[in-house]
Amino acid sequence: MKLLPFLRPLLEAAAAVTLMVVGLRVITGFFTRKSRVYRPTFLRQFALLFWPLLCLGVGLPFLGTFFYAGTLSSYELVLLTAVAAVVLGFSVPAFLLHSQYYARNLHTTLVFDPKQNVLEVYEGRVRIPFGKKDIARVERVTCKSERLFWSNYTYLKLQLQTGEVLTLTSLLTNLEPVAEFLRNTPLEKKQRWFCWA
């Protein structure tokens, strides 16, 4: 396998860089106060994608043997297909949700401070004007299972009196405190196997 000697240094370098970035973020997190401004950050994305990336990283070398499919026996091919189905079945849905949430909230900024009674949403640099009284209904969608790789992908839909709908995804932050903050508005809770926003 000529690909393995070339791939190993790249994977080691990527792991070292990731470890350094995460370590620096954790260390600097001790000295900063809790933020009330939420955007899609690297650390939040890494936390959501950790298990799908790990599954793909473990299963990817096995999937490379599909290039030698002509030399494999039928038993090995069936086993390899089962491994590929498990790896892709656990990873791909999380990547699809992540990319959809990223596209939806890439330019969204949430300013949330329940102690100061602040909930603001910005699209780009433009603040969307609304108050708690302007929210007609809140839809909270969570995953039915807590054991799937995509279970942490949830979203809130704020339906304003004007008819505008604001979608806040878990790519910004944990949405449970936001839903708790909006408990006095009409809140509709839904559960789905796949939380496509």
From TrEMBL:
The chain crosses the membrane at residues 6-27, 48-71, 77-97. It comes from the Bacteria. Residues 37-180 form the PH domain. Keywords: Membrane, Transmembrane, Transmembrane helix. InterPro entries: PH_40. Pfam families: PH_40. This is PH domain-containing protein. It comes from Hymenobacter sublimis.
